[in-house]
């Protein structure tokens, strides 16, 4: 049985073997250190362009990113900045995107009373309740009337205006909070979040083909690699193979299953899209 | 796919209490997870919105008998209702939770009841209506009387609670547990109609399966 972490209400996995025997690890695993400031700067040329994107993604996949530069590197991984962009171009992009963001916000604030009622019912009602209970253990979001919570709230509301087909699904606050805490700027976080959302299965409703497809892959992997566990699920009947217990793993990419530092490390490795068939 | 029907555990093994599945239903932020946390861990804290499903179990003593409650907790947001048929399946009991400071959550509880009845036969699932957050009674929008009348009209059990102040939380679960045991015992005494089950010498309860 897993244990409930003292400051969490959900159970977390504990990592029992931090060092795997070399026979079980990727041969290149130990060749990469965490990406720090100097290594990061080495990836950039004098114009601020990422010289070899593939190498950068590989380094991040194996080594992760040092906390001090996450806010700077994540926007690349989340496709807000392109790797070819120069520092100058990125500054221009930020300005332009900030303007776009404020236009989206303006659109939200100038709804007709009728539109607003529908928006409140479908989106705002839930967002308001969720942002004040998301990542409260993180110093960044702690306390009453925390302006960062207000930023998170505006980002989610504006996202629902920007992408009404997705709107707001519970769980999205879990995804945006760590980005805001690293990227800090509200508009930049919004656009990083837009990039992130394109890579999650929230883009469709919580349960449809995308979730089904992911679960199908997972079932197949279990069947091939963990035969006894798979048989156990089979023996539980249909409920077992529905694997309700891992829907959250897929929706939030293990955010709540691991302590935050480990979860964000997993996120970075996923965002690096290293060794994926189509990027 | 394998046969899916969940049934409470047969009572053949005396050391193992019978298991019952209880689902928590209700709109977002009414306190479903808080009720479960208070009941199972006697704790109350800021809880992240539930995504997917969360599961708890607790063994309850009712008089001399005991039973195991498998508590299923899920997201309140309507978008997630599409997974509900999985969630409802084989449930023995449901807590239909609303927030007494939100009329809207009370109306949504009524909608949840309709959804539940679409999936399960009303006589097969024990439903209790629970008005949570009595600690916020100065902001109350749903009176005790309104809750009680609706529950009576639908033949539901009814209680008001405060997960925060630990008011009547264990009472809710105990009342459900007690009623489940009583129903179960009544069924065991009823004559067995299903010949196949009689031949198997299986417990009568297994003849019932869940609602399909």
Automatic annotation (TrEMBL), chain A:
Give the top-rank taxon of the lineage listed in the UniProt record for this protein.
Eukaryota
All residue ranges annotated as the Rab-GAP TBC domain in the record? 64-274
Any one Gene Ontology cellular component term annotated for this protein: early endosome
The cross-references to SUPFAM superfamilies, in alphabetical order and at most eight, read: Ypt/Rab-GAP domain of gyp1p (SSF47923)
Q: Does the keyword Ubl conjugation apply?
A: no
Enumerate the UniProt keywords alphabetically. Answer: GTPase activation
The record ties this protein, via PROSITE patterns, to: TBC_RABGAP
Transmembrane segments annotated in the record for this chain: none
The entry lists its GO molecular-function terms as: GTPase activator activity
SMART domains in alphabetical order: TBC
For this protein, the record's PANTHER family field holds: TBC1 DOMAIN FAMILY MEMBER 16, TBC1 DOMAIN FAMILY MEMBER GTPASE-ACTIVATING PROTEIN
Q: What is this protein called?
A: TBC1 domain family member 16
From TrEMBL, chain B:
Q: Which membrane topology term applies here?
A: Lipid-anchor
UniProt source species: Piliocolobus tephrosceles (Ugandan red Colobus)
Enzyme class, top EC level, equals hydrolase
Query: Its Enzyme Commission number?
Result: 3.6.5.2
Required co-factor(s) are: Mg(2+)
One protein family per Pfam: Ras
Provide the protein name. Ras-related protein Rab-17
Q: Name one GO cellular component term.
A: melanosome
Read off the InterPro entries from this record.
Answer: P-loop_NTPase (IPR027417), Rab_GTPases_membrane_traffic (IPR050209), Small_GTP-bd (IPR005225), Small_GTPase (IPR001806)
Which biological processes are named by the entry's GO terms? plasma membrane bounded cell projection assembly; protein transport
Q: Which UniProt keywords apply?
A: Cell projection, Endosome, GTP-binding, Hydrolase, Lipoprotein, Magnesium, Membrane, Metal-binding, Nucleotide-binding, Phosphoprotein, Prenylation, Protein transport, Transport
Under catalytic activity, the entry for this protein gives: GTP + H2O = GDP + phosphate + H(+)
**GO MF terms, alphabetically ordered:** G protein activity; GTP binding; metal ion binding
- Protein encoded by which gene: RAB17
The family note in this entry says: Belongs to the small GTPase superfamily. Rab family.
From the UniProt annotation, give the residues forming the signal peptide.
none
